[in-house]
Amino acid sequence: MDQIMNKVGSYWFSQRANKEINSVGDDINSLSSSIEGGAKWLVNKLKGKMQKPLPELLKEYDLPIGLFPRDATNYEFNEETGKLIVYIPSICEVGYKDSSVVRFSTIVTGYLEKGKLVDIEGLKTKVMIWVKVTSIASEGSKLHFTAGMKKTRTRSAYEVLRDGLSIDKF
């Protein structure tokens, strides 16, 4: 009986240890992404270029402030070219109050213009299946998502910052 209990205990312990080791690896990857974005923020601050919060930038370009998940705080924006790179700590999905769902990769890129985000990489929405979003345009109270076809949604659904739900793959 002692041998059986020892084997069961050893098995349970090794399984638990593997889970913990995998969890630590995931935490290190997430931390390195956060540090990378934070390091860029720090370098910009030291250079004297303090960026405004992402929701403020979106509002300035006539896009809803809740377009990205709440934890998407690190970004790079080139005012000359309009290139926007948003860093998100982990792949996630955000559900909006109009029942739409948007999936975000850890890096989302695009070109920001007044009322538009175009040439988007790293963003998907669910129509019937997950489809890559290539552009988002704001027009009054409407928000037009182009994902193979144009899908119009109410802008007000995207005016509130929401938390992303972490998922395994983009």
Compact summary:
Helices cover 31% and strands 35% of the residues. The protein has helices spanning 2-46, 54-60, and strands at residues 74-77, 83-87, 92-95, 101-113, 116-126, 130-132, 135-139, 142-147, 149-154, 165-166.
Proportion of beta-strand residues? 25-35%
Q: Mean pLDDT across all residues, rounded?
A: 80
* Structural class by SSE content: alpha+beta
Total DSSP E strands: 10
Helix content: 25-40%
Biggest sheet record: 10 strands, antiparallel
Number of H/I helices: 2
Radius of gyration: 20 Å
Q: Regions with pLDDT < 50 over 5+ consecutive residues?
A: none
**First-last Cα distance:** 47 Å
Order of helices and strands: HHEEEEEEEEEE
Secondary structure topology:
Layout: H1 2-46, H2 54-60, E1 74-77, E2 83-87, E3 92-95, E4 101-113, E5 116-126, E6 130-132, E7 135-139, E8 142-147, E9 149-154, E10 165-166
Antiparallel strand pairs: 1-2, 2-4, 3-4, 3-10, 4-5, 5-6, 5-7, 7-8, 8-9
Would you give an account of this structure?
Strands 1, 2, 3, 4, 5, 6, 7, 8, 9 and 10 form a 10-stranded antiparallel sheet that branches. By secondary structure, this protein is of the alpha+beta class. Helix content is 31%, strand content 35%. It has 2 helices and 10 strands. β8 and β9 form a beta hairpin.
